[in-house]
Write a structure and sequence with these properties.
The complex is a heterotrimer of chains A (300), B (247) and C (233).
Chain A: E1 2-13, E2 16-27, E3 31-35, H1 42-49, E4 57-62, H2 71-75, E5 77-80, H3 92-102, H4 108-117, H5 131-144, E6 149-153, H6 161-177, E7 181-186, H7 189-192, E8 198-203, E9 206-212, H8 213-217, E10 220-226, H9 227-234, E11 239-245, E12 249-255, H10 260-265, E13 269-272, H11 275-283, H12 290-299
Parallel strand pairs in A: 3-7, 3-8, 5-6, 6-7
Antiparallel strand pairs in A: 1-2, 1-4, 8-9, 10-12, 10-13, 11-12
Helix pairs in contact in A: 3-4, 4-5
Chain B: H1 8-22, H2 24-41, E1 46-51, E2 55-62, H3 65-83, H4 85-93, H5 98-134, E3 139-142, H6 149-179, H7 183-194, E4 198-199, E5 202-203, H8 204-213, H9 218-239
Antiparallel strand pairs in B: 1-2, 4-5
Helix pairs in contact in B: 1-5, 2-3, 2-5, 3-5, 3-6, 5-6, 6-9
Chain C: H1 5-27, H2 32-52, E1 58-60, H3 77-84, H4 88-92, E2 96-103, E3 108-114, E4 119-125, E5 131-145, E6 148-151, E7 160-164, E8 167-171, E9 177-184, H5 188-191, E10 202-215, E11 219-222, E12 227-230
The chains are: A alpha/beta (300), B mainly alpha (247), C alpha/beta (233).
């Protein structure tokens, strides 16, 4: 069953299309990583799914309902980001009690346990927390609410490495305990890679890829070798990214849809591409990349 | 995971309870402005003296009028503040839709206005006591033989209604500001402009004030104010039903 | 611009003040628990205030019976005529505030006054021999607050009368007695629906005068600024 269905979603924001005819389906009880560069439309998509924003055109359905102004969707989804607003009148401990009254599936033991584990002072107000602590606290709310759809938008902003590790571990354990649909948006995939089942890569407001993490690992390969040889071979290949090109050797990322043996026999090495790198390659603006900027300047 | 079922009234009550806690600062502001009003009231509403060569009688009358007026201003301002982004976001952190958000806001504003109106009305006691001890007074005269308990009851109800009227006006104005920031400048110009639109001798602004404040029949006053309040809250809810949140 | 605009401007100033106050408080907010107790304390103070305010030495405004005062000038014309016709005992005997008696055997008397410029009535009577009787009458003092009249007679100051050789000196208090009264008025949300409007503006009226009885033959002269009349008999 699909928890989220988006068809031809367009969101016009400040004259430009933040989402440009985006379509995506997300299955129930999966952890999906929403990957994309800054400005790709990740947050826009998530806020439309959460029912905060209204799509300009197209169709969006969450739990088979239009999310905007839908109380059932709101009750069964939570949107966690670093902009979450809590009243300054209540302490973070009291806020947990408030959240408890709202969410029907709220796990108070989990919330208090995590609050304790991450060494929060329960009498502090949310406003007085540091950026990293805020993110951690928001994550606790997100996990403990046990909403059927849990959305984390850049959840680890400001967290230090140890807390990040703990967070992902907690997320995974909690997910195994009570499976639900989780979306994590991030711009670095390698951090969340081990966690994810599916990866949704968006770019310029469009869906670029929506694959399982295994499929993504097999999606492309890097072929490298003598330039002349590789170039000749590239003719009928789907080139994703040219990494290093000079007169002697080069390495190019291509779609992994050919038998490797024949290539290897030619003296070209075929190696796998890390999914995080692949995402960077797929979403890079030009086929040259940042190095190009510098190499061009040198040649002038 | 099966979907949790919720109903609107349930969520509205939860949001309302949450607001009564999270907007506690609103009540502190009420306290501050009422204390300020009490201090001003101690100066006396009107004062006059007369002398016949024998003695000079200085009569100062004291009422809680200033406190009530300040409470109206508080209700207006407070309703605007409640509609601002930082207060709105608090709601959409937890379960909410725009209807439940508006309904819980309205419930909260009604509660706050009732509390504000009653405290304003009660402040007369403190004013009299302070006046008596701070000003070295010969005596208190009260002109209350014309005012019985029923009149006081009407007074409390009327105070609640005008404070609510101010609150509803603030809520509409606040929501208009949220829809378009330009209105922050246009609306005051419009209101002051009403002062220049005259029919016969009175300006339109005056007429609007007189519509409520010179109505001598209580039941008609109740109908006028309640209709206006409902209209205001309804309009605000309608205006914001498509508003995007968590921007 | 109508007078409504000025209060409106004041309102806007207060509104801006409130918004600034709001921004200040959100930076370093009080917690819910603390705020709640502060506010409950405030409400308690208000309730204590409303409970104890009636215990203040309050006098209910004595409303004079309207029929008693058909005219609010110093003395009504009819009363004055009656007095001049010798009706003092009938009309005012009960209102005499203070009476001074002096033995006096001279032929002439000069009347002078300090801090008093009211009415003096003199009655020549055969009843008195070598004796002068000075009466000060505090009749009434009424304050009008809008439609309501309040009897403030009890605040009229005392007078003294002294006899020095052949001068009778009527003396008022050196300084005007200042009476500060606080008047509680119904709030505008009450008065809006009252039939009898408690209006604004005050006025005062009342009467007080000296009534002096002297022997029949005494020659009485007086200073220019006294309003002196002789009872006809």
């Amino acid at each position: 069953m699909n928890v989220i269905e988006c068809k031809d979603l367009v969101k016009n924001y400040g004259g430009a299309n933040a989402l440009d005819h985006l379509s995506v389906f997300i299955k129930e009880n999966t952890i999906t990583g929403l990957i994309g560069r800054n400005g790709a439309g990740k947050t826009t998509l998530l806020k439309i799914i959460a029912g905060f924003w209204k799509a300009t055109s197209g169709e969006v359905k969450v739990f088979n309902r239009q999310p905007f102004n839908n109380l059932i969707v709101s009750a069964n989804s939570i949107f966690v980001d670093d902009m979450m607003d809590f009243t300054s009148a209540l302490t973070i401990k009291e806020l947990l009690d408030e959240a408890k009254t709202f969410y029907p599936n709220w796990d108070h033991d989990l919330a208090e346990g995590l609050l304790n584990y991450f060494e929060f002072n329960p009498n502090q107000s949310h406003q007085s927390l540091s950026k990293g602590k805020k993110s951690t606290y928001n994550m606790i709310i997100g996990l403990a609410s046990k909403c059927a759809l849990t959305i984390f938008d850049e959840p680890t902003t400001g967290m230090d490495a140890a807390v990040r590790k703990d967070f992902y571990r907690a997320l995974l354990k909690d997910y195994i305990q009570s499976p639900r649909t989780i979306i994590i948006s991030s711009h670095h995939l390698d951090e969340v890679e081990d966690l994810l089942e599916d990866v949704l890569l968006i770019h310029d407001g469009k869906t670029l890829l929506h694959l399982s993490i295994e499929e993504l690992k097999e999606y492309a390969v890097k072929i490298s070798g003598r330039t002349a040889l590789v170039m000749q071979y590239l003719d009928n290949k789907e080139v994703i990214y040219k990494e290093e090109i000079n007169s002697e050797t080069c390495s190019v990322i291509v779609r992994n849809n050919f038998p490797h043996e024949s290539v290897k026999r030619l003296g070209i090495t075929v190696s796998s591409v890390k999914p995080s790198d692949l995402c960077v390659y797929l979403t890079s603006q030009s086929k040259g990349g940042i190095d190009d900027v510098f190499s061009k300047r040198e040649s002038v | 995971m099966s979907l949790a079922n919720v109903n609107l009234s349930n969520i509205v009550i939860k949001q309302y309870r949450y607001k009564m806690k999270s907007f506690i600062g609103v009540f502190l502001a009420l306290m501050v402005i009422q204390v300020f009003g009490i201090l001003i009231s101690m100066l006396g509403a009107s004062s006059s003296g007369f002398s016949n060569g024998f003695f000079f009688i200085n009569v100062t009358s004291y009422t809680a009028n200033v406190v009530i007026a300040f409470t109206m201003i508080w209700a207006f301002t407070n309703a605007i503040i409640v509609t601002t982004k930082s207060y709105r976001e608090d709601d959409f952190t937890f379960i909410s839709n725009r209807l439940s958000y508006n309904l819980s806001n309205i419930l909260f504003l009604i509660t706050a206005c009732v509390i504000g109106a009653i405290t304003a009305f009660l402040s007369r006691g403190v004013i009299y006591i302070l006046v008596f001890f701070v000003n070295d007074l010969e005596t208190f005269l009260t002109v209350n033989q014309e005012v019985n308990m029923a009149d006081y009851l009407i007074g409390v109800l009327a105070t609640i209604l005008i404070v609510l009227l101010a609150g509803a006006a603030g809520y509409v104005v606040g929501m208009l500001f949220q829809l378009n920031k330009l209105l922050i400048f246009i609306l005051p110009v419009f209101v002051f402009g009403l002062d220049f639109i005259r029919t016969s001798n009175e300006s339109t602004l005056q007429r609007i004030f007189e519509f409520y404040f010179t109505e001598q029949v209580f039941t008609i006053f109740v109908v006028k104010t309640i209709m206006t309040i409902l209209l205001g809250f309804g309009l605000a809810a309608l205006l914001t039903n498509r508003m995007e949140v968590r921007r | 611009m109508t007078p409504i605009v000025l209060p409106l401007l004041l309102m806007i100033i207060i509104i801006v003040g409130l918004v600034v106050f709001n921004n200040r408080t959100t930076k370093k907010p009080l917690t819910y628990q603390k705020s709640r107790w502060i506010f409950i304390g405030y409400i308690l103070i208000l309730i204590i205030g409303i409970a104890f305010a009636p215990l203040l030495p309050t006098t209910n405004a004595k409303q004079p019976n309207n029929s008693e005062f058909d005219d609010f000038y110093i003395l009504s014309q009819s009363q004055y005529t009656e007095l001049l016709d010798g009706g003092f005992t009938d009309i005012y005997q009960d209102n005499v505030d203070e009476t001074w008696s002096f033995t006096y055997s001279r032929d002439s008397l000069f009347l002078d006054a300090v801090n008093f410029d009211g009415i003096v009535l003199i009655e020549r009577t055969k009843d008195l021999q070598d004796k002068i009787e000075v009466n000060f009458i505090k009749d009434y003092a009424v304050m009008e607050v809008g439609a309501v009249m309040i009897d403030i007679s009890e605040y009229q100051p005392d007078m003294t009368a002294d006899l020095n050789t052949d001068v009778l000196l009527l003396q008022g208090p050196a300084n005007e007695r200042e009476v500060r009264l606080a008047l509680t008025e119904p709030e505008f949300t009450i008065s809006q629906f009252l039939d009898n409007k408690v209006g604004e503006g005050y006025s005062y009226s009342g009467s007080h005068f000296f009534y002096i009885r002297v022997p029949q033959e005494l020659h009485v002269s007086y200073s220019d600024y006294l309003l002196v009349d002789f009872v006809k008999n």
